[in-house]
Give the backbone structure.
Amino acid sequence: MQKPINPIKAARKALRSISSKAYQTALSDGNQPSDAKKVVMALFALELIRHVLETPSKQTKAKICNLLGVNRVLTSSLSEEIGILFRRFLSKHAFCFDDALSWAYQYVNKLSKDTGLETTQFFTEKYMITALVDRCQIERSTGKILDPACGGGNFLLYALDYLCDNARLSSIADIRAYVVSQLNRLYGYELDPTLAVIASINLRIKALSIIKEHGHTVTEEDLFSILPNIYFSVEDNIEGALDPWTDAHLVKKAGTAQTDTLASILRSVEFLFTNPPFKTVKGMDERQKAFLKSSFPFAKCDMCNAFIEFALNTMTDHGICGMVTQTSWMYLDSFEPFRNSLLKHHSIRTVIELGSNAFYDLNGEKANVALLIAQKTQPDTDTFIAAYSLKHLTQVDAERLLSSEHGLDDHKVLLNQLDLLNRSGSRLELSISFRIHFERRGYRTYGEYAVPMQGTSTGNSKSLVGYFWEHIGDSDWRPVSKGGGYSRWLGLNSYAVKWGKDGEFIKETKGSAIRNARYFNETQLVFSDTGTAGLNVRLLLDGQIFIASGPGIRVIQGDYLSHIAFLNSRFASYFIRLLSPKLTVAAGYIAKIPVLDELLLSDELAGYARTCIERKRDRLSKRPIFLEYQPLVDIGHSTTLDEQALSWFLKDMEDEWEQLCAEKEIDRYILNAFDLTDDDVENLNAQVGRHALDIDAHLSLSVNEMDAAISELLSANCMLNRTRPGKNHLGCDGVLEYLTFKFNVSTRNLYQAISRNAQSFHKTLAKYKDAYIHSLVLSALGYSIESLPRELPKNVLIDEIALRFPSLDREMDTIDKWIENRLTGFHKTAFLNTPIIHYSAPGAVESKGIRTG
């Protein structure tokens, strides 16, 4: 079941590859990194120019090189070798013509690393640009259009295309003059001078392409006589377009010697479009931090927020801005003053929440994205915000909806802006009806029943946190809930922290902070602070403490089992997402989840939670890298390794099935207790996905497909090594759940098919067999979570296995060969590249455990 290849991702991958090749080629020709980058950009630009001039002259090549600061004559062989890479790319991916040079610059700039801007240069996706520009009706005036962080000019390129579309040009007598007049409306500023030149070149080529498409001849003279309004600073600075001293800030027009002031560039702006740098206080340069605190205090050192404020202050009255932003300004408590000011003085027309993975080139959960359209007008009682929540959709589906708009209104809510301003927190919650339901009913919040707490920051986790098996026998090290991943009920318990007496080692470490240590013995639950996969809560084990990435929850009223059931529900995860768009889960947001007395005192919920915990513990008890591990004991009757592997596999599937059934009952119980409307339930399902047992699609996977999919998902220890099958899903706690969402198949059908055909899952059973023999060997060596394995000659070890596991008498030769050929490599992988045993053929199994330090 191979997924169709996304053409944009395929093109970006190809462009990244050829950009790297071209850059390495330029380096090998004797260029320094900065010069090599400019050489590549000049030669790529010339290939674009070929499409409007066909055979650019040597003079054109020299002028383009000069524009980009290439100060040497390029050999024909170098030019052809690099040029042909881009030529072939364009022939296969013609739809990338407009923005290919921009993206190539981004890729090469990350290799040259000579600007200091590489980490914040993520250019705007075309579907974001069209969604913003198309909604702002820039054709209804002749006013200035500005991008104050223009990058390669992608917003401006589309704006020119939009203003010069066929419908408008059909009634224009002098097309050339019209295109130039529209180009003159467009202004851009860019902090990176080389990128500013690229934006200028892009706009020249775009203007000439439009003119040529309508039957006019274009010349080299046209290419260099057209001078787009793209500017960069004369002197290096950190403020860029945000500089408040605009009259003193000198800028230079890209491709010319012409200088002006930033004030003149920012004057009389009617439309502003931009994708500002996604940069927050973390890791920010101290000078920039001080500048933002002084000039944009409400922005709280968030660059996106500063640009929103700047944009609305810069535009003329009634001016409109369209921006790509991070969503944190919409929700976080720390940005409430910022929201209040924005809602009070400006009219928000549209917010489109895209969530994470909105950019093709930003893999993973690195930024939650929203598109914002706002106007510099005073809001009144009739000002409504059209708010769209697409964050639960895949990137492809969100792009399709925004491009066609068919079905887009299904994801729309209208929010009265002044009502929003008067609400506590002034949050722009796109699922606001859900919150209103609870506020009107006057529900109590979870913080009245329990205390979610911050965990200790070690200051140096590399030295102070390690795997527990590295420190067995060392009293300074204590088992710890580290978090940092996804697991419900139990799990992620592979770690220890160097605690000593009352955290002495942490206290000595710079940047550390001991938090809530006095509550270790009173804490029952812990959670992962990573929130992208949803809230996931686990039991705190006896003797275990918690640190920052796996903080604690101290129950003060109710049954802790009812608490963990409630917190692991889809309802709780959904509400966390409503409260906070951040990629981490803060203790304060858990405290705000609405709850009912009856839920946290429910014997029924506690019973379901007990089932989930027992089923999860059963699975973890077979895995030696977890604190839940129990060494193997003989089963008491004759068996084989294959039978035991099959038994383990089937038991894992049974345990997960029973856990899913209990979780479904928890979900049903909680949603019924809150008496949600059908719209609320539909919204919840849309945002966090339906429960796995509610997926009723017919099974369409063959046994071989299921076997291949499961074996690929399993780690050496036969645990799920990926937790999220897609952007819109919560984390998965097992194979059945993952495959249900990954392939949209019925969990029940999947479980029944596995149960009936388990012996045919050859790849999966091979993994289970390895895991079983590994545990068998460790058990015979005396390994447990409290004791390191002994060192034994192989023949003695085999005798020990035969003595302790007589039921496997017929398998001793197989086990002997496995130890000989597989033990060392498999053990290293299973123990996460931190092994504690090693077999040196034909000698002993040696213990590598670290007992001190």
Q: What stands out?
A: The radius of gyration is 31 Å. The first strand starts at residue 144 and ends at 147. The mean pLDDT is 89.
